[in-house]
């Protein structure tokens, strides 16, 4: 049987690295994509040579990791780095199957005559397909002291775990989440004035829910028109049928696929382990493992319950489930339209939670439910674990109309826990309501979505807010 030769591998490497030819940059398609709000922080890590660490770019599938790596390569080229000093390999390329990372690196260095002290930039994409990638990467970082390594992978939590276990002091993790609503507006070319046209902003928000979490669907009409084929099937096939089984040794992948479908349809709902086990036919212990796996792949989020006094439960029997990306729901089950689909309210809530998840300390967020009421979102102080904010989410303005029947639960929770302000998210209503001891702020969901997670992507949102307020002041 004939074997793949080094000559064939070198030929493929040259194809994957067109910038080795002077004056040639990255693919035109990648150049056309807007840069994500996370790009600058990521590129700063790519450029930085001290301390000597590899960058591990993590995140769910189809959120633009490969594009961002290519944009970083273009920035290196634009900054004067010689193309022959930059090496990119996607480890899911069939030709590279079974080849060690060091073998590929040595072929590159031999091709261009780089000695052991050469200052190089090396990118390994889809690193989870390389056996024991973390051990090999650590060895490369230790052996090639003047090479800056950057790798990417999709099973993000598993990658983080491995990087922390095997790359202590050698790896810097960087998480790229799905596209935020603020980034979506930037990708669509909307100015800050969009803030003050609530109906238009709501239309954009519905579009964001339907396809905006995936950059590819914004940039490519074919992907947008057939989300099931281009997005959902790819994620399900590669994550559930390949990534997770290889990482965790899952035997029944169809069972896991059915569970994800069930959870995706119920995004925004409270779910009990008991009922989920009965409905899915999966034993509780196995169910808990599957939920951890789906979280590890950044497909789902769980919010944990607190009571009227903001106390946690010693034994958790239920939780609220959310997709990390609301667009995955519509990719699986079809798009929603304003006020015509019963799913819309839960998808709006999912979109809000996905924005908050991009900010810091998401583990401080919970939902409250007790015998006589519930509040959709409650943030606890990291230090004191006491409530610091309470949010009710409605895709309607009915809650903002006298006699304000729908506010009593959030009002009761605020009074019980000493909060002076509560937030009610609406469809279009935007005003403040002073109650006896509490101020309730009503705000459109779409506007809040542009501001949630502000600490996670500060520049994109703060600049937009500043421009919006300036424009409003001139009108």
From TrEMBL:
Its protein name is ATPase
A Pfam family recorded for this sequence = DUF4143
Cite the DUF4143 domain residue spans from the record. Answer: 242-396
Lineage of producing organism: Bacteria, Pseudomonadati, Pseudomonadota, Alphaproteobacteria, Rhodospirillales
- Record-annotated AAA domain positions: 52-185
Highest taxon, organism lineage: Bacteria
Give the organism the record lists: Skermanella aerolata
């Amino acid at each position: 049987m004939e074997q793949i030769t080094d000559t064939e591998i070198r030929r493929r490497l040259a194809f994957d690295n067109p910038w080795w030819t002077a004056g040639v940059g990255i693919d035109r398609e990648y150049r056309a994509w807007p840069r994500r709000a996370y790009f600058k922080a990521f590129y700063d890590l790519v450029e930085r040579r001290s301390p000597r660490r590899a960058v591990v770019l993590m995140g769910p599938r189809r959120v633009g990791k490969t594009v961002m790596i290519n944009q970083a390569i273009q920035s290196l080229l634009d900054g004067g780095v010689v193309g022959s000093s930059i090496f990119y390999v996607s480890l899911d390329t069939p030709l590279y199957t079974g080849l060690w990372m060091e073998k590929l690196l040595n072929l590159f260095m031999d091709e261009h005559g780089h000695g052991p002290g050469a200052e190089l930039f090396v990118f390994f994409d889809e690193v989870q397909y390389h056996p024991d990638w973390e051990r090999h990467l650590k060895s490369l970082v230790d052996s090639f002291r003047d090479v800056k390594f950057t790798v990417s992978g999709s099973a993000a939590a598993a990658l983080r775990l491995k990087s922390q276990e095997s790359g202590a002091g050698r790896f810097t993790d960087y998480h790229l989440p799905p596209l935020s609503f603020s980034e979506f507006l930037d990708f669509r070319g909307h100015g800050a004035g969009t803030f003050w046209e609530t109906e238009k902003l709501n239309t954009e928000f519905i579009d964001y829910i339907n396809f905006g979490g995936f950059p590819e669907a914004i940039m490519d009409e074919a992907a947008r028109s057939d989300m099931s084929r281009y997005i959902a099937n790819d994620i399900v096939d590669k994550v559930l049928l390949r990534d997770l089984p290889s990482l965790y040794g899952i035997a029944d992948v169809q069972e896991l696929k059915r569970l994800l479908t069930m959870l995706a349809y119920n995004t925004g709902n409270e779910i009990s382990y008991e009922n989920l086990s009965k409905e899915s036919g999966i034993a509780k212990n196995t169910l808990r493992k599957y939920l951890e796996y789906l979280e590890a792949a950044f497909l789902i989020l769980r919010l944990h319950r607190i009571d009227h006094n903001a106390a946690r439960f010693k034994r958790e029997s239920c939780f609220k489930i959310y997709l990390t990306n609301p667009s995955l729901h519509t990719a699986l089950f079809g798009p929603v339209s304003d006020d015509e689909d019963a799913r819309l309210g839960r998808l709006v809530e999912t979109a809000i939670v996905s924005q908050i998840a991009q900010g810091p300390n998401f583990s401080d967020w919970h939902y409250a439910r007790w015998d006589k009421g519930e509040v959709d979102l409650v943030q606890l102080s990291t230090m004191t674990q006491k409530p610091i904010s309470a949010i009710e989410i409605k895709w309607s303005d009915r809650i903002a109309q006298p006699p304000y029947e729908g506010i009593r639960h959030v009002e009761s929770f605020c009074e019980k826990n000493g909060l002076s302000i509560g937030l009610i998210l609406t469809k279009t209503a935007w005003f403040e309501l002073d109650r006896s001891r509490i101020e309730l702020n009503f705000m459109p969901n779409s506007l809040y979505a542009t501001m949630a997670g502000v600490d996670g992507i500060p520049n994109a949102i703060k600049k937009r807010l500043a421009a919006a307020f300036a424009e409003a002041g001139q009108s």
